[in-house]
TrEMBL record:
It comes from the Bacteria. GO terms for molecular function: hydrolase activity; metal ion binding. Gene3D superfamilies: Ribonuclease Z/Hydroxyacylglutathione hydrolase-like. It comes from Cytobacillus depressus. Pfam families: Lactamase_B. This is MBL fold metallo-hydrolase. Keywords: Hydrolase, Metal-binding, Zinc. Residues 12-192 form the Metallo-beta-lactamase domain. Its cofactor is Zn(2+).
Length: 211
């Protein structure tokens, strides 16, 4: 399995593409710049099969409808943020004057609990990792030794918890109970900034010391 990191939009939110050798791919958090994302998909001769959202803050969802319609693929999100795609007040786009309100279509499928899921040729584990937002999830691929962690865990940092629905203690618990229990060699694909590993964050992340 290969993965590609595409920082998109003014906040440089990481969109990820995970692909198989046959070109089938999953798209995570297409935040903006749908044309740029589509160009990469075409250049690499990829065939998207689904969009999966780690959560629905505005900087992670801006290109969802464009990509969904272009490739005719479904969108998956946790049920606790089922209304966020259609409500600017919930996804945060309505709180900033410089941000265009994002009010799109509902997701096609809702994730309701932790589970192993299979979409096409991809099998992965869903972990609920709330704290940054109520419906934040992390998606673990044992086959590729990687986890798409959204804005839960960053290289040397953790997600902010001062937005509506955020909870600092809950986020720390999510990280320790769900993410730091993964193998230390697991690559962490974060919503912003460079990739890291579980082992690196266990050893050096200042926000996790003393928890």
């Amino acid at each position: 399995m290969e993965w590609y990191q595409l920082p998109l939009g003014p906040l440089q939110t990481n969109c990820y593409i995970l692909s198989k050798e046959n070109g089938k791919c999953l798209i995570f958090d297409p935040g903006e710049e749908s044309e740029k994302l589509s160009n990469i998909i075409q250049q690499k001769s990829l065939q998207p099969v689904a969009i999966i959202l780690t959560h629905a803050h505005f900087d992670h969802i801006g290109a969802v409808d464009d990509i969904r319609e272009e490739y005719e693929i479904p969108v998956y999100i946790h049920e606790k943020e089922a209304d966020w795609l259609i409500d600017p007040a919930l996804n945060g786009s309505g709180r900033y004057e410089m941000i265009e309100n994002i009010s799109g279509k509902p997701a096609d499928f809702f994730i309701r609990n932790e589970q192993e899921m299979t979409i096409g040729e991809f099998t992965f584990q869903i972990y609920e990792t709330p704290g940054h937002s109520p419906g934040s999830i992390s998606i673990y691929f044992k086959e590729g030794d990687l986890v798409v962690a959204g804005d839960a865990l960053f290289n040397g940092s953790i997600g902010r918890t001062d937005l509506p629905g955020g909870n600092h203690d809950l986020l720390l618990n999510s990280i320790h109970q769900k993410l730091l229990t993964l193998p230390e060699e697991t690559t962490v694909l974060s919503g912003h900034g460079p990739a890291t590993t579980i082992g690196q964050e266990m050893d050096s992340n200042p926000f996790l010391n003393g928890f």
